[in-house]
User: Fold these one by one.
Assistant:
Number 1:
Amino acid sequence: MKLTDNEKKMLQGEYGSIRAKALDYLVQFGVAFGAEKLVPISYCHYPAEMAIYDGFCEDVEAFANHNVQVVVPTTSSTLCCDMENSSLTNCPKQLYETQLKTKLAFQKMGILETFTCTPQQIGFVPPMGSYISSVESSAIIYFNSLLGARTNRGGLFTRYSSITGKYPAMGYLLDENRTPTCFFDVSLEARELSRIDQWSTLGYIIGEQAQDQVPYIFLSDLKQPTMTQMISFGAAMATSGSVTLFHMEGVTPEANNYKKLYKTTFNKVLLSHREIEDVQHRFQRIYENQPIDFVVLGCPHANLELIRHVSEKMESKRIHQDVTFWICTNRMTKLQASHCGYTEKLLKSGIKLVADTCPVESHMRKNICDQYNLPFPYFSTMLSNSLKMLHYSRNLLGVKTALLSTNQCIESAMKGKLVTSHSQKEDDYEVF
Amino acid sequence: MKYFKGNRILVGKTGQSIHEKEGLIPDITGSCIICPHSFSFLGDIDSNSGEIMKSDSPGKTLQIAHTIFAFHSSKGSSSGCVILSSLAQRNKGPLAIITLHAPDYNLVEGAILGGIPFVSEIDPQFFQDMQTGMVVTIRRNKCFVTQN
């Protein structure tokens, strides 16, 4: 691999032994994949370093004690509880205290305390064509596809990129790997693809079929999607598959480059109602009028508009006493929600606005329940508008699941049982 | 003896070369687990014990610790890297990983940090001929796998 003079100096320890070791990892990683050089990155989304995994908080603490700081703007991913109010989710005190080590280490290292899976919603929007290094599969697919920034599916090596500002020129950073390799022709009417749960379902189907390929998607009746819909869509695709980049005609910035390729390709996967219904049935383990105890919105983390929508729907109403209802978001959006009065309205209705975490990353996992003598499953059922949330919760939290629209989730939470009778006509035009 | 060629082998830990070089790894022999589809290290496995818990998996109740774990490709959350390296730290990781598809960068990072050799783009015939429980060997300095 060809290194610049400055990179050679870093490798020889001129910027400290920790940076030298970090760069060595990146160089060898690049050599293994045939990268010819390292490229400068402009942004990092740093691994979560969660207390639910043994030793990770202690590792990041030790890393920070070397007094090494990040050299590019670096945001951080979700943790295992709301770091300003850990009792909000009933997180065990000891688990919170372990997690606190990460927060303090991040402060030392100059890592921003965003604790979110959707940094793009709070202003971290890397420019098109820029090289970045990111964890969090839903953010990665969004950065690559919707923004045209370039990152691979990052993991723990993102630590090394954040303190060196480098990543090997390989994978999705290179033009030749951004060409679509599978093609989808989606025959759904715009009204069948407006709500979050509908976009999530379509993403899940495409992810299952595309796996690690680059899908090109054509929708015959496309209504311009919202950012929330695209986040849900990508998140689901990166759950059932490992899709890192997709192109959608009329939506994503690089799709135009491949329009001709799509037109001349015969091998297209046709998707319609049938596939959508099939996936929804696979996740349906709770049926009409059966009691429910847990409702979750905000996977990936909710934006202010979704929070506003729910708080408006809950005006002067309350959820059922047997139901716990979380909306998961990031701290900045929670502050905005409080400023707008939504948090208070939600609290009055019995809904918790939870920052920094989500159920899948919380104490509700089996090993943590065992460790802290908590019941498992912590909740027996889960309703959500996100297939990503339901997919992981089935096994990790041991819950029975059902995918509903946002409004059906709200309605069910109020009644304490699954209800799908919410006006379908109204839902047809809902974007949530 | 059957043998199956892979396209690439990655191996290493804490600063050693992670690209195959002369004599880096000894032969690795172990019982294999064959998962004939994609696999997510978040959700499909107990991150504490290494037990496969994907409900619709033919590998249900199998334990990946100290086995050669073969699957088509990795999928899902980028926490996969964290879970794999965490399993390795607690001596619950696989002896090696074999995949049909090109390696997922995320998982490779976890394998490197966990010191788990990773053979990718194995001959598709491997998944036709091999079954869970068979003993295979990853040969030193060669990117191929033999059935013992």
Number 2:
Amino acid sequence: MLGLGIESTAHTFSCAVIEKKGTRSKILSDVRSIYQPPDGQGIHPREASRHHVKNAAIVLSECLQKAKVKVNDLDIISYAAGPGLGPCLRVGAVVARSLAFYYNIPIYPVNHAVGHIELGKMLTGAKKPLLLLVSGGHTMLLVFSLGKWRVFGETLDITIGQLLDQFGRFAGFASPCGKRIEELASKSCNYIALPYVVNGNDVSFSGLLSAAKLEISKGLEDVCFSLQETAFAMIGEATERALAFTREKELLVVGGVASNKRLAEILTSVCKRQDCKFFVCPGYYAGDCGSQISLTGLLESSVKNGVKIEDTFVKQSWRVDSVEIAY
Amino acid sequence: MKKTLIKKGAEADIYLTNWNNEKAIYKKREPKEYRNLILDIKLRKHRTIREAGIMHDVKLFGIHAPLVYFVDTKKTSILMQYIEGNLVKDLPDRKLVKICKEIGRIVGRMHKSGVMHGDLTTSNFIIQKDIIFLIDFGLSSRTRKIEDHAIDLRLFKEVLNSAHTAIMEQGWTNFLQGYKSIVGVARKNQVFSYVSIIEQRGRYATVV
């Protein structure tokens, strides 16, 4: 089966084609165009959606060409229906609807977070993992139980991605700022005390963000280092608590921040202590991409039919723990 | 001191040992290699002191908790009473649902006395015949703030939802009933409505 996936929840517009044969899936193409805000600024939803509109056709045709398929060959089309920025989501949905309607192809709205999870599972081979989703939109620990991903712990305010980006923008970096912060952090080992907040399995980053901003005059490298050390240690501890409680034997990390080396190092150490296998989504597919959406749509198509065009939707707030998973 | 490792917890290693011919638990917060050294020492020391202090205090409010025998702030370890029994987490669903009410009462009593637990999971309650012991006060603190108490409740709800999904609804109702019977309707309602506020702060919880 051939599935096209369209991702447009935030700064990335991406199309991907995946071929699924039985339980095996293969990514035939995955093309992206990423909206780049000016340095020191965040994603402006309207500007990002304009970027998506401008690039949608280019990305789509390149994606089909690379996969060597025609629209007519596609068995299903899926799009990320949420959570995300409204104007951006609508672009992906419009592209998906147009194709589905004109070519009469079944259409599937997909939850973006489930997309991260499913692609991570496929690429790493993790079977029944405790899941850590770390990105600009999410910071969550999830376990699968009775047909849904259940939240075991999460951030009580901003996400780890927002923490890094908002701090980075304050320092004048270009978004997304994670890479730059990681680079600067690796040049220091001078720890400045910052607030560390873990409530059971939950974390809170807002106090840490304010404190880090206040310390910036003490040296950017030192603050970047201390910010990473504190935030990732918090995630490490929350994860370790969840592992100790659930006794899961696998940990899978997905989401944009999964590509951070220091975080991976910390989590590897956590897994060693808890005698657990560690899986991390490969860097290129950790960030938002069409493959996540395409794969999830294909999995859904194994248990249900596509939705009617008039029933397709976008939902800016669509919590992952509200999605029924039947496959 | 002879000791056998019985659990590698998230925060500390738990050993079974002997103290004055009694079975005892030796809880040691080992350095975490992944954590920055300064941060690591600070956290381990604070939590050891706080845990020992509050574990002692709650007994004055009529909550069953292990007796503290010895605290070592350098080694960040606590020697305490061994509690025989089963983790509430491992009980069959039918029993767990019932016990939620008593857990609610215990938590109510603790909150009423100005302590939050900070890690209110079902693996931190041990049932011994018909007595329930509360353990692991590493994240506890002395507070009477509604928000802090709500954090305790929310965590317990989250654990019911993710680890005991099948009995979540009834278990939670029972918990609240027990809680209310101690803190009173007004306070329960205040804390409970704060739980919803925290939940709505969750990512994508409110529909736009």
